[in-house]
Amino acid sequence: MFKKNYIVSRQFSLSTSLDTIGPIALGVADCFVADQVLSGEGVPSRPRVASPNTFRLIVARGRLFHRCEPEVLNAFESTVERLRSYGLQIDDGSIEAALDNVAGIDKIGTFPSIKVGATLRSLGISTLDGVDPKTRVRIEAGASILAVDYVRMARLRHAAIRSFEQSFTENEVFILPTTPIRAPFLSSVEEDSAFHEFNGLVLRNPRVANMLDCPSISLPLSLDGLSAGLMLIGRRNADRRLLEIASSVETLLRGYSHAV
């Protein structure tokens, strides 16, 4: 006879302040349909492709380009030039003011480490024995944050969200590499210091949209070997417009004729 092993697990959000549901799909149209379903709408429809002369792409130059792998940076710049050759309006810009606000929050603490610690405590889990050390150190970091500091973090975030929302329109989208590096090999992140370094780089750019409570989408960049992405960040509460713009960008990059 075979002995049966039963495993009971409980899933919960890492950070209720930041976690959002988003699809991984073959194209923007599928993301659009998934968004409609998740929004509880009726029969899903296909997205309208934004006309190229109705929006502007802004390259978010600055610290989010630091430590970009040459291959990722070259693929990004080549894609920007290709889109520009198709007639898209693309300008260099900056979101450094918003990033200063995010950095101010990070100096106090991080929402995930605080939130997951609170969730574990509410579940009656008082010990972190058995938790992966790389994860445990992040949870323990949140335990030392005072309540008054958490309130400060929340207030700073709300101010940053309002400020960023007012800095551009729904017809403007910031673009940048989704991550500055491609996925590292497991052998390169065995040491704790290396893991935390690479983990920080992989999360650095995508987390900006989470912190600023705005929609974003990543399209694949043309690159040999491991994949890289082109991230588009839209204005808060302008998810559908972002998907329309992303659909237009995707159409051009795929080499199809634009359909108005």
Automatic annotation (TrEMBL):
Protein species of origin: Bradyrhizobium algeriense
InterPro entries per UniProt: Amidase, Amidase_dom, AS_sf
Pfam families to which the protein is assigned, alphabetical: Amidase (PF01425)
UniProt protein name: Asp-tRNA(Asn)/Glu-tRNA(Gln) amidotransferase A subunit family amidase
Domain annotation Amidase: ranges: 13-243
